[in-house]
Specification:
Elements: H1 10-24, E1 26-28, H2 29-36, H3 40-52, E2 57-59, E3 62-64, E4 80-83, E5 93-99, H4 106-120, E6 122-128, H5 136-146, E7 152-154, H6 163-172, E8 177-180, E9 194-198, H7 200-213, E10 219-224, H8 230-243, E11 253-258, E12 264-265, H9 268-277, E13 282-286, H10 288-300, E14 310-314, E15 327-330, H11 333-349, E16 357-360, E17 363-365
Parallel strand pairs: 5-6, 5-7, 7-8, 8-9, 9-16, 10-11, 10-13, 13-14, 14-15
Antiparallel strand pairs: 1-3, 2-3, 4-6, 11-12, 15-17
Helix pairs in contact: 2-3, 4-11, 5-6, 7-8, 9-10
């Protein structure tokens, strides 16, 4: 069994490596290999990449932080680390970052933020929350009062119950903040905030456009119930159906709820059955795990992907690793991280400037899971 099949993907593995390092200060390669459940060769490869990014420093037989004196705001627990700025010639200015996950989607956003922060001479203090955002207010208070950050980048779920309290706290504390992959609902009475988002609606439309170009006229959608991304993806899919004069009323529009054990409600086989009944020839599926589950269910039924059903995954976190490699829409995760830091740095330099809302376009990566409609 290879390292990649042990249940942890490279980005998540490197995030855990950094968490361990910031908790311990310095770690031996062999100890890291045992902790992560991989080979020493894999750990050395990860360390080499992180060292090239300026996040760690290699020493004989192990790895340490690049500058112990500049990173004394290290780990206070899992999901909370500090990384130092580079090239500032003095103490780095602290900024906080709160994300809902450290093992899916968000590691690349964080890496992008850290890259931009180093260029700007800033230090990022990272904390992990959840998609429900139930503890976000406590995390925000810790970053502002405990870590004394000058500003925040946060991905609080603005549809959750605590959203108003979190945003109002930021306003009351006069903390400069940038929303990351989130928009402020009009109903929330707060001064305008800076924000950076992927154009997920456009990404979904790009998926539909690709499928229409292959001759598909019955294009369904599967989305994740608890993901904030599902709403703009569905909006873009619907708009694209109307643009191409496709059937938007009778189209398959399924929502699934994925548990931690990868059990889906409703079951994926029900969705495949509905697709067959309605003559659907292609599906846009958010996110990658749901798309993979659809393909696997097709294979269990003896259906061909893309022969019987073309699949476009939305996220492209692991879509390329699957067999067949999945055509996917990839949100600009690192660019989102870069833009968040740039917005916050500009706000710190000029607190009175107008609010900025940055929208970044995803990209389409065509692989093996989409093809022309049979007979077209």
């Amino acid at each position: 069994m290879t390292d990649e099949t042990r249940g942890i993907l490279p980005d998540a593995r490197r995030t855990r490596l950094l968490e361990t390092l910031h908790r311990e200060g310095s770690v031996r390669v062999n100890d890291l290999a045992e902790t992560l459940g991989v080979t020493s060769v894999t750990v050395r490869r990860d360390v080499a990449q992180l060292a090239a990014e300026g996040l760690v420093r290699r020493v004989h037989g192990g790895v340490t932080l690049p500058d112990a004196g500049a990173t004394n705001g290290a780990m206070n627990g899992a999901g909370n680390r500090a990384t130092n700025g580079a090239g500032s010639g003095g103490p780095a200015t602290g900024i906080g970052m709160l994300v809902p996950s450290l093992d899916y989607y968000w590691p690349d956003v964080v890496r992008g933020a850290e890259e931009a922060a180093r260029r700007a001479g800033l230090r990022v203090t990272l904390r992990g929350s959840s998609y429900e955002s139930e503890d976000d207010l406590a995390h925000v208070e810790h970053l502002v009062r405990g870590a004394h950050v000058a500003g925040l980048m946060l991905a609080t779920n603005t549809a959750a119950g605590q959203a108003s309290a979190v945003l109002e706290h930021l306003v009351a504390s006069r903390t400069p903040a940038v929303l990351v992959e989130r928009r402020v609902p009009d109903a929330l009475i707060v001064p305008p905030l800076d924000s950076v988002v992927s154009d997920h609606a456009l990404g979904a439309a790009m998926a539909v456009n690709h499928l229409v170009g292959l001759g598909h006229r019955r294009i369904g959608l599967v989305t994740s119930r608890n993901s904030p991304t599902s709403t703009p993806v569905r909006r873009g899919w619907l708009d694209a159906l109307v643009t191409h004069d496709l059937d938007d009323e009778g189209a398959l529009d399924a929502v699934v709820d994925r548990s931690a054990t990868q059990v889906f409600d409703p079951p994926i086989d029900n969705i495949v059955s509905l697709a067959l009944e309605r003559g659907v020839t292609a599906l846009v599926v958010h996110a990658d795990p749901e798309a993979i589950a659809v393909v696997q269910q097709c294979h269990m039924r003896g259906l061909s992907v893309p022969g019987d059903l073309s699949i476009v995954a939305y996220d492209d976190e692991v879509a390329e690793l699957f067999s067949p490699a999945l055509t996917a829409i990839r949100p600009p995760r690192r660019s989102v991280g870069h833009a968040a830091v740039e917005l916050l740095a500009a706000r710190l330099a000029d607190p009175d400037r107008p609010s900025h809302r940055v929208i970044i376009t995803p990209t389409l990566h065509v692989r093996e899971s989409t093809g022309r409609v049979r007979g077209s």
